[in-house]
Amino acid sequence: MGDASWRMGDSNQSVTSDFTLMGLLSHSGPHLVLFSLVAVIFTMGLLGNAILLFLIHTDSRLHTPMYFLLSQLSLLDVGFLLVTIPKMAANFLQGEGSISFGGCAAQMFFLMLMGVSEGVLLSLMSYDRYVAVCHPLHYPVLMRRQVCLLVVGTSWLSGVLVASIQTSITLHFPYCASHTVDHFFCELPALLKLSCADTSAYELSLSISGVLILLLPLSLITTSYSHVLRAVLCMHSAETRHKAFTTCSSHITVVGLFYGAAMFMYMVPGTYHSPQQDNVVSLFYSLVTPTLNPLIYSLRNREVRMALVKVLGRAGFMSKR
């Protein structure tokens, strides 16, 4: 596609490579309040994930496989926030929603990368909990540093691979004169609706690949946590049982939030949901879930709370005992 222009197959195809994002908000009173709320949640999400990353890096008690994987989850969540919300906010403040071809491609690529990587990472985090609860004596061997690096590398590389394939295929479709994307960022399902070509076969392949990309990790998660739940219920110590259940319930909450939104967007055919529903679900997993994840882990994990108290005590924000 030379000089960032589209190949023209029909006279009604546009030669411009720019897209226009419809946006999520208008400049009415209620939407100004909603924009302020989005800005507050965005700031909370960045701060929450940054604090969690800082605590994991600085507190030696958090230098464990579980928290190493959790730090990667926070990195992915920061990426979700930075790829979508700043552009949406800039378009809202400038009163226009144009995005270049390169910008649209980058948004789509990085969102796909982070989405697939997070799905794989969550499934491998469930394996970490399975080993910790069901095979605690073998945990240092089964989750040694080399294994953790392999787990993280697998999640990131799978994201890069899927994102490269899906983005390149989507952007090679011809697009008609209307380059108005009925969405607040460039996401694959919304962009396909603008194509002049018949994309039904590709959309079917997306649904099939969605089964592999989403349901296979989800089946691993379900299997792992079913074994974990059985083991937790058989524990004799109430304190140990409570600690294991609290940690695993945090993971299950995050999994439910992420996979629920992803399955709606990528496994349910586009004809069965409206652009308004797409916007709400996309806002949920690009803003709400990344903000909730560090809160879920920090509020429900005693080690994280203790590390935060320690840091605040050193900084003089809490009275010394």
Key attributes of the depicted protein:
globular, 321 residues, 2% strand, Rhopdopsin 7-helix transmembrane proteins, disordered N terminus, 3-stranded mixed β-sheet, mainly alpha, membrane
- What does the average pLDDT come to? 82
**What is the terminal-to-terminal distance?**
66 Å
Beta content: under 5%
The third-level CATH topology is Rhopdopsin 7-helix transmembrane proteins
- How many alpha or pi helices? 10
Major sheet details: 3 strands, mixed
Membrane topology: Multi-pass membrane protein
GO molecular function: G protein-coupled receptor activity; olfactory receptor activity
Subcellular location: Cell membrane
Protein name: Olfactory receptor
Question: Care to describe what's here?
Answer:
The chain is mainly α. It is built from 10 helices and 3 strands, in the order E-H-H-E-H-H-H-E-H-H-H-H-H. It starts with 18 loop residues before the first strand and ends in a 6-residue tail after the last helix.
Strand-helix topology:
Elements: E1 19-21, H1 29-58, H2 65-94, E2 98-99, H3 101-134, H4 139-142, H5 145-171, E3 180-181, H6 188-192, H7 200-233, H8 238-266, H9 275-300, H10 302-315
Helix pairs in contact: 1-2, 1-9, 2-3, 2-5, 2-9, 3-5, 3-7, 3-8, 7-8, 8-9, 9-10
Function: Putative odorant or sperm cell receptor.
GO molecular function, one term: G protein-coupled receptor activity
Membrane topology: Multi-pass membrane protein
